[in-house]
Amino acid sequence: MNEHHRVEENYDAEKIQVLEGLEAVRKRPGMYIATTSSQGLHHLVYEIVDNAIDEALAGFCDRITVEILPGDVIRVTDNGRGIPTGVHPKMGISTLEVVFTVLHAGGKFGGGGYKVAGGLHGVGASVVNALSEYLRVRVCNEGKVHEMAFARGAVTQPMTVTGDTDLTGTTVEFKPDGEIFDELEYDYETLLTRMREQAFLNAGVTIVLRDAREGREREETLCYEGGIRQFVEYINRNKTPVHEDIIYFSAAREGSEAEVAIQYNDGYNEMVLSFANNINTPEGGMHETGLKTALTRAINDYARKYKMLKDDDKNLTGDDVREGITCVVSVKLEEAQFEGQTKTKLGNAFMRTMVDNMVYDNLSAYLEENPTVAKAITEKTLAAARAREAARKAREATRRKSALDSASMPGKLADCQERDPALTEIYIVEGDSAGGSAKNGRDRRYQAILPLWGKMLNVEKARIDKIFGNEKLMPMVTAFGAGIGEEFDISKLRYGKIILMADADVDGSHIRTLLLTFFYRYMRPLIEEGHVYIAQPPLYKVAPRGRNQEPRYAYNDRQLAALLQEFPGADVQRYKGLGEMSPQQLWETTMDPETRTILRVNVEDAMRIDQTLTILMGEKVEPRREFIEQNARDVVNLDV
To answer: Which of 126, 299, 509, 527 is the most exposed place for a label (fewest CB within 10 A)?
Structure first.
């Protein structure tokens, strides 16, 4: 516990308020942590870390250590003030026990414990406790070491003083409950992404992540004095910036603060990350709206003033001014209101005005004072506007063409009979021979096939105007029926499942990555709403010797080894490509919903996909080489 330090401030029992009891959590864990999948498992760590971050926000903690111990046990240590251990005035038990056993008990409900807090509902510690096989907590405060233990939310060791100390802080160790979670193995990279994000958002706080599981030992110390400036630098590390400086502004008023960091790169995609009280707000909200309107206004004003936009030119749109931007906006406020489906949208209206004023005033002044940067940014936005106009013309030309073409579906599409998207699926199949097998092997009632030939356009290096008229991509856009880019409308989607079926080799993987890049950039709701899947064709056919023995299929080397143990001396055929399978084999192994395995593609983390796509599909060769060298040994399945 030598990471704790002394503080004078008193954080006492009366500041913890109690709202309700804990029984429901184990019955309906999804209500409290969204899911009991791997995502929910990792969420437990974030809840405990968020409590330590709240201590850091309040100015009492500057070091947090997160450890994955053998057996996927988690230990989080901070050097904050230590959870209060005095008797809770309303509950008559120690406040430490209240924090870990009572739902909605936290210093975040107006008791003055915290001004600004990230933990959203104050459910953190008690929910983690309820969903853990065991949880132990050790608190150093007021000169004493206090320890307490629980199992599935119930106290197994009452709070006991076990020694003296002149340090302060809290250590929580827990093992997630196998009765609740489908998955009990922690992923170091997932935790690292989140911890790095927290270190960027809390400049100067040190977060150590350590993996102590056998054979996986590694450790990372994260501390960024430059805060979100370094965050933007990190996101852009494999991109080519349009200007060297990171543009940074901050403002504070009446208990709220906001900061923004911006740098443009020479790519075509926008990356705006917004946070409120350290919580990522992927649905945006008031702070993001304020940022976007101010950015558009400031750049238009500058372009007009210096005649880069002529009198009869239309204004630049929001999309024009955000092409190639990397931007992080982080706000901290006392009574954060979160809205939206997943409570990840900030609803406090005053934040829009605060961020808008801050960005408009500071950016206008910055552009005036830095004419070279201003010119580079404005020229980039004007080029985006020209491309948008070209895309509009190309789109209209495409529309006119397809309206005249009576059978406007692509000629190569073998459509299905069913018309209800909830029941239909389309296979995007690489290669001619595989397309033939798939057409003949499918169930034509609800399975459609669209074959693709050869490599397609790498959309990471091309603007949207190049996509219209592209003979590889447009048939797919037409077949899906939902449009593209800002006009994409998922309610018009003709197939509920889009399944990518390509060979299990490097070319097949490249084609899958190109397709996923295209969907991610221009039809993102397809991925966000879970419509995109990757087919898993078998790698081997194992034919046991002997009469009436059906062939077996192995999807990886492990399955092959098991089959060869079961049928020694069987004949093994390795499929080089989908075209080598008969229609019947393709149906049985890869397309029959009863027996196939398909993997759903999800966007757990837009930044990670963005990074990987930039590295693998972008202009720079060096990061790609490094990425391949680092990851080559770990590749089990290139797509997942």
So the answer is: 509
